[in-house]
Amino acid sequence: MDSNHRFPPIGSYGFLSDCHTSALVSYDGAVEWLCLPRFDSASTFAALLDRDAGHFKIAPRGVVVPLSRRYEPGTLVIETTWVTDTGWVVIHDALTIAEWATSDGKGSRPDTEHESDRSLLRTMTCIDGEVEMEMECLPRFAYGAGPASWSGGELGEAVALGPDGTELRLTSDMELSVEDGLARGALKLRENETGFCALAWGDGDLGGPRSAPEALERLDSTEEFWRHWLRDGDFPDHPWRIHLQRSALVLKGLTYTPTGAILAAPTTSLPETPGGERNWDYRYSWIRDSTFSLWALHTLGFDQEARDFMRFIVDVCQEDPDLQIMYGIGGEKDLTESTLDHLGGYGGARPVRIGNGAYDQRQNDVWGALLDSIYLHEKALRGTGTPTDRQLIRYQVEAAIAAWPHPDQGIWESRGEPQHYVSSKLMIWVAVDRGARLARSLGFEEVAEGWKRTAEEFRDEILERGVRDGVFRQHYETDALDASTLLIPLLRFLPRDDPRIKATVEAIAADLTEHGLVLRYKVEETDDGLSGEEGTFLICSFWLVSALSEIGEQARARALCERLLESSGWLDLYAEELDAPSGRHLGNFPQAFTHLALVNAVSHVIADEQREDGGPTAVFTEMGGVREDA
């Protein structure tokens, strides 16, 4: 097993995407994670999970650490600047995107059905002196189990073939050599000279570029795509705008274009506990995330992406109305979990898992997430639902009502005994409450009244059985706290000035934090079926920002939000967790849920500032509510 110190910090990786797959790039110039051809396919490079499981590295000879790294503004293209004893070189990395056609005939925005080049492009430009560049390409197919067989190498082109027939095409203006599954390249660049290296896959017509000018054209078109897309958003004129824009780019980058599905994260088995067993595959789309995704996308002005994701959710529900908690990004239902025992794991954290055994758990929050998403979407788009959608609404509300008496595994997918989790009961209430509102807006008054009465009964039970000493608890049979109850004010279960809301927020801030950041729950008080500690959850800390804003603690909300924004990874990306004492990011990376909560929290703080300044502000109605000027 490899030494733990050889793994770069999780928060140091850069994230590339073409909305079909993604890559993670280490600070030393190595691509250490790439799955082909989809986000959830088997990996081609997986040094992220085992140092011998494949990488693709480009860097100046003899230099390990670059001078600087950043995203080209408004893009998912990474720029890395290196300085050596003889010169300076700038490397740009991108999963390239081809030219697009506009969807509205006016050229005002790129079509979301853009075309991936199916190519990972890396360009090198010497900006001063001269620099000797080196390249290593070591594919290890099938999650590191399948070595590559190389052919070619003459005239800057080579082909790597995997045992399963997977083919990679390497093109470059470097001098190439291939041996023992490894392709190497070398190139001396002088001032103002550019070199390139590209990997291409699949049956696309383009393949990789054949010259440096063509490589630069591909890079320019990719940057232009991202900037055109971002320009279509709605961002406030505020110093924190950059964080909203980066989160928007991450969410777009985690969207699988063919279906509109949004992944929870592009990685598997990055540990929540260093060296521990809390390692999960997040390359799937959770119904749970839909409320937050739709809210963020509509808030930031990306209605088309919201439509695409909503259609994905509706499609999987119509195919089989009995909801799962998560689906594959192509709508797949079977996500059977297995382990890859030949991989040592990030920092020795094992097992390495693919698939996710939680897919067939009972989680009663799914109906609330679905109905709140539909309610939000209908409000944002002024009621575009179809009769089929309305039939779906009725089926799902009735399913939520039927689930009420049953315990479940909760929002955190506990692998312990089922319980009557307050957050799950809350989301069933949300399902019935939003169903009643939708029914009334569609003219079904009798149905709406019946569902409204049921929602009131559910609320009464939650308040009777889920509250102890004026504070909402994790589930009906415990006094333990749970950060998921921070959603109560955001979902408009009670008025924000209700004393039980304030008491719950304050109790979590005081007793469920570590160095001021929020834990999901205390592992010693919760039967989650696992051992070991875990870090503070970034989504929960961003929820606390929003909840503090809701109860009128604007100064505390801003201070915590500022701290969280300063704790981002090296490229303004977030994992799932943060080790509060060290500031290390833990868990899969980058994490959609964290970036979604960031959008909500930052929007709350900006709204508070605008309100204090007497300018236009944002009124947050239901969590699924659209932003309105007031």
Describe the structure.
The chain is an alpha+beta fold and 630 residues long. Helices cover 32% and strands 22% of the residues. β23 and β24 (471-472) form a beta hairpin. α12 packs parallel to α14 (592-613). The longest helix has 22 residues, at 592-613. The N and C termini lie far apart (59 Å). The model is unreliable at 101-113 and 616-630 (pLDDT under 50).
Distance N terminus to C terminus? 59 Å
Average pLDDT level:
90
What is the makeup of the main sheet? 15 strands, antiparallel
Described by the principal axes of the CA atoms, the overall outline is: elongated
Beta-strand fraction estimate: 15-25%
**What percent of residues adopt helix (DSSP H or I)?**
25-40%
* Assembly status: single chain
The value of Rg in angstroms is 25 Å
How many helical stretches? 14
Beta strands, count: 31
- SS content category: alpha+beta
pLDDT < 50 runs, ≥5 residues: 101-113, 616-630
Task: List the SSEs and their pairings.
Blueprint: E1 14-17, E2 22-25, E3 30-35, E4 43-45, E5 55-60, E6 68-71, E7 78-83, E8 87-97, E9 116-138, H1 141-144, E10 146-147, E11 149-152, E12 157-161, E13 167-172, E14 175-179, E15 182-190, E16 194-201, H2 212-231, H3 241-253, E17 255-256, E18 261-262, E19 285-286, H4 290-299, H5 303-319, E20 326-327, E21 338-339, E22 353-354, H6 366-380, H7 387-403, H8 422-441, H9 445-465, E23 467-468, E24 471-472, H10 487-490, H11 499-511, E25 513-514, E26 517-518, E27 536-537, H12 538-550, H13 554-566, E28 577-579, E29 584-586, H14 592-613, E30 618-619, E31 628-629
Antiparallel strand pairs: 1-2, 2-3, 3-4, 3-5, 5-9, 6-7, 7-8, 8-9, 9-15, 9-16, 11-12, 12-13, 13-16, 14-15, 17-18, 19-20, 21-22, 23-24, 25-26, 27-28, 28-29, 30-31
Helix pairs in contact: 3-14, 4-5, 4-6, 4-14, 5-6, 6-7, 6-8, 7-8, 8-9, 12-13, 12-14, 13-14
